[in-house]
Design brief:
homodimer; Ubiquitin-like (UB roll); 7-stranded mixed sheet; 6-stranded mixed sheet; Raco-like_middle (chains A, B); 2Fe-2S_ferredoxin-like_sf (chains A, B); Corrinoid activation/regeneration protein AcsV (chains A, B)
Chain lengths: ~650, ~650
């Protein structure tokens, strides 16, 4: 056996001769970002060998200088002797950092206000799918000696009108002692169903109705966000987020699905989301609030179809193979203990319904909170997270499609990309004379990389300043120390020199990155146009455009249009609605009416499979240009570029 | 630590100084019968110390001779040094012996014939609550790419008309691969519910409809009986029974309930019924038939209220405390895996409903198979197992009560009592001149003890031959070697001398036994009369009397009337209907119509709590006489006794 020690974690593990270094790190629970899941294509899993040697090859992702000082790609290295490995701090921490967020911030207040208006405008009620009722049951005597459970049923029928009351045997097991401990004063947690039926999920002695919390949970491919809601007062009391720990098995859903087909792959992915992501997020909030997990009696989770399959431990491989079939679209309520999610183990979890393999529960939740279903106007809803999903509709119809944009909008598969968190460059302005950039960095931290909105800014600025042409190629005739070409003549623009910021390496964007991003934005634009035109409509008929998702609130609409990602319609029609999936889960959690509306929306959404539209591929190719091969489609850009 | 070795099992265990020997045996899984659950009152747990000494006291249950040769009561002995203990073979084997029964016997044929007539007469159908359907699902394609589960739901709606189809997440997990393994030809096991709904409980690839078995299970306090039914052909294919392994924790329900309140008591009782009784019975039948447990997809179990609580691991202590409240009367369907019963782990188990603390699911099942609910005549139904339960009614009403008769009818709490199995004396005739008995022994085996029907015969014969008087006291003036008195002047009659049969000890009946039995029969008689008179009716209005239960088919009705256990009505009105509980479970298993009828019967049964009837105690005291203090109530007996 060979010993591998990881620094600065100071964790030593043993492995076999020629074991893959990335796999060894995963087994040791060392987080190394590997968006391409070990295909030697993204270059993100760069580590430094500080003692010993590995069997490796130099790749284009590693400079000569780096290679000489010990840098290798973990995925491309085999362990052949005892080694010590340094994992760059950026890799080991930035993606997975836990963040307790301020739930009283302005963005949140506005989103919550919108939700409240939506509920009241549609005559709906804030009342969760889970109910907690304190009841005083009639004491038994010899003349009235029906069973404990029958007595509870009778009380619920007489008091609340439930004709049928069900519960699992494990609840029945609790009843006799709980009833008598509280002298027949008990709190009953139950889930009402159609037809005057309710299902008791828990019984406690005494009055515990003041401890009545629920969790809304958005499970993104890259990031996971959650909030705890006081269902008694109807208030968000905590909010937190972190990276999705599955990222070590691949940055996008396709790589995760492939990983799930490997031995124990599905179990590892499930463990990564439940035990390494969701439970730590929940626990951090419990600590923050000083509440007990047993007081959480409801949870609504939304995620894309792959995330939903992985959360429920359902084999997802048929999602990626034509004809792209999910195992399920609607899941039954599931007990927390079945998923090992750390809330009250008897609580039932509601998973927001999916529409198709690539339009998931995050989108149906987003449709719910965005209120498209109650709008008279035609609304275009675009979720720009990992991949892009599009919904177009109003109160009478809802059309949806997915475009395989990949993880570029959250910084994935971009050499210096990262998600929109502390240290991410989110805004860029390039001086037309010096070609030097001015950077807007999240938290005004040292720059660590570029997030989605930063890349849009950067590409737009490079285009406007002629650093790149409309194909995304760097102008070789510019004389600037920020522009350089490697041995393969692949150009890059330096956003931040390491010396200027005292960081480990220069932050750059390469022609390869730009090409990746152009394909991503092309997928979105061609998706939008195909969806709208499939209805025989055109962009003039769009009344409103809502942008949601991980791309971040600093998304510059004007520049997004300039690079041809978004349709060239009046900028005032656009608004950014943040994490609409989380807000949708919040609504489904706090309002049973809203939850039913969500089910209704998902039933009525018509999924358009882009790959069967013959025009889609042509549209895509035309859109892989800045902004488009047909500049007439972008009149405002035509003017500003002076084409 | 002290070593205790049990022979002939040759099992050695260690225990602490002064540990109770009965508890040590239980921990070692050595079966020692202890009907009184270690109260030093029944004298059944007699063992022989063959090496070493114990801290014990002589009791009335042990003769001087026995005491000198090392016999002690295990419950009354503390371990103080290393010992070797001989467990008499009768104790260790007779109660718990597994018996594979001939399901083609005449008794069974008749019972099954009755069931079939009942079903057809009431226009019901033989169709189980569980269905297995082989279906060919439409293959998916890009134009029809709904999820696998939605596809199955659509097929079931189009083919069978189910508007709503539910299933658990664990079934969804199976769907994607099972569907594709069978090229979308699958067998779906499901449980239809009201309102065009069905619940899928299993999915298998290919056609498995020919392997479709169910189990009917009667859980008695003393004995457990089961049969396997081929639900495809509608035929009983195996039948087996054995003692209830809980008996080591007490012979009757009261002692078991008391045991359940001890540390780990409930878990031990649950383990005894599931793992030490039901699963071995099932496995013996699987071996006999050569079928796999996974082919058993339905199970219906009936037992008294205490047995039902213990089976489901529900704390039963409030059953025995006024006002005698069960935790539940109707249980939800429960998955086999939750109860750890060795059938297909996904199969759902139906538990027959209870009516009150002492009228359980065995009685409602008995009511179902006896057909009282469809009878125009007034039927008296008496279940004589451990305890006695009585139902009186016809198609318009059903009244029921329970009498605390204890385990005497199955041989419990009688010094030489045993259940009606091989070696039990079931028929007795005493020669009026010699006072020698002629014994009818089950299987013509060596006599090992007396069962319920034997005790009735014996007491009746002793009464007719003036060996006992009408109080049950032995006539001191008879000169016979079969009649003897101990130092406390307690008389006994010897049924079988050990020398005559080469057995370990004489088989006798003592005045204490007779007194126990008189109280048991008095409880039954006073229960019957109180129930009938509570309706303002009298015995003349009884059209039919059905006797069911463990007392056995050799019950002599004439003698049962003679000792005052059963009402003195025309003998032709009586019939013995065997294990009506098992037959009721068979019906509920094989016919969903019958199962619904069972629910209906249990809802409509009116429970009469005898203890609130002021007349009941007087009736009981009057009935604790042979046949009764008021001989006028037994005109036929008056004639034959010549009173």
């Amino acid at each position: 056996m060979i010993k591998v020690k990881f620094m600065p974690q100071n964790i030593e593990v043993v492995c076999k001769y020629k074991d893959n270094l990335l796999e060894v790190a995963r087994k040791a629970n060392i987080f190394i970002d590997a968006p391409c899941n070990g295909n030697v294509s993204c270059g993100k899993c760069k580590v430094k060998i500080i003692n010993g040697r590995v069997d490796t090859k130099k790749t284009t992702h590693i400079t000569d200088e780096e290679f000489d000082s010990g840098y290798v790609l973990a995925c491309n290295s085999k362990v052949i002797e005892d080694i010590q490995v340094e994992v760059p701090s950026k890799l080991s921490s930035s993606m997975n950092k836990m963040k307790i967020e301020d739930s009283s911030s302005d963005v949140y207040k506005k989103l919550l206000e919108n939700c409240k208006q939506l509920i009241s405008k549609n005559h709906m009620e804030f009342k969760s799918y889970v109910r907690k009722n304190y009841v005083t049951i009639e004491l038994p005597n010899l003349d009235d000696n029906i069973s404990d459970f029958d007595r509870i049923k009778r009380h619920l029928r007489n008091t609340f009108g439930y004709e049928k009351v069900t519960c699992k045997i494990e609840t029945i097991r609790k009843i006799p002692n709980i009833l008598r401990e509280g002298n027949f004063n008990v709190t009953i947690t139950h889930i009402p169903k159609a037809g005057n039926t309710t299902n008791i999920v828990n019984i406690e002695s005494g009055d515990t109705t003041d401890k009545f919390y629920g969790v809304a949970l958005d499970i993104g491919t890259t990031s996971v966000a959650a909030c705890i809601v006081d269902l008694y007062k109807g208030k968000i009391v905590a909010k937190a987020s972190s990276g999705n720990a599955q990222i070590k098995y691949g940055a996008d859903v396709i790589n995760r699905i492939i990983y799930s087909t490997k031995k124990d792959g599905l179990e590892k992915l499930n463990k990564a989301i439940v035990h390494e992501t969701i439970n730590p997020i929940l626990e951090s909030m419990y600590n923050e609030l000083g509440i007990d997990k047993n007081d959480i009696t409801a949870l609504v989770a939304g995620g894309n179809t792959t995330m939903t399959h992985l959360l429920l431990n359902v084999y997802p491989d048929y999602l990626r193979m034509e004809p792209y079939i999910p195992a399920f679209s609607k899941s039954p309520y599931i007990q927390a203990k079945e998923l090992e999610i750390e809330i009250n183990s008897d609580a039932y979890i509601y998973i927001t319904p999916c529409v198709a393999s690539y339009v998931g529960g995050d989108i149906t939740a987003g449709v719910l909170s965005s209120g498209i279903w109650s709008s008279d106007e035609n609304v275009l809803f675009i979720d720009l997270g990992t991949n892009g999903e599009i919904v177009f509709g109003n109160k009478d119809y809802l059309m949806t499609c997915a475009c395989s944009a990949g993880p570029a909008f959250e910084g994935g598969e971009i050499s210096c990309g990262m998600r929109a968190s502390s240290g991410a460059i989110e805004k860029i302005r390039i001086d037309k004379d010096t070609l030097n950039p001015t950077l807007g960095i999240i938290s005004n931290d040292k720059p660590q990389g570029i997030c989605g909105s930063g890349i849009i800014d950067l590409i737009a600025e490079m285009l406007v300043n002629n650093i790149i042409d409309r194909r995304g190629k760097i102008n070789e005739n510019i004389n600037s120390n920020r522009i350089r070409f490697d041995e393969n003549e692949i150009g890059e623009y330096v956003l931040a020199f390491k010396e200027d910021y005292n960081i480990e390496r220069d932050i750059t964007i390469t022609e390869v990155d730009i090409d990746s991003f152009i394909r991503a934005k092309g997928a979105v634009y061609s998706g939008i146009i195909t969806l709208v035109e499939s209805l025989g409509m055109d962009f003039d008929m769009i009344d409103k455009v809502l942008i949601a998702g991980g791309i971040g609130s600093s998304l510059n609409i004007e520049k997004s249009i300039l690079i041809g990602m978004l349709p060239d319609v009046d900028k005032n029609k656009y608004s950014y609605i943040g994490n609409s999936s989380l807000m949708g889960c919040y609504l489904a959690l706090t309002s049973e009416d809203a939850r039913c509306k969500l089910e209704e929306c998902s039933d009525s959404m018509t999924y358009v499979e882009l790959s069967v539209y013959p025009s889609y591929m042509d549209e895509f190719i035309s859109a892989c240009f800045l902004p488009h091969t047909d500049i007439e489609k972008f009149p405002s850009v035509k003017a500003s570029l002076g084409c």
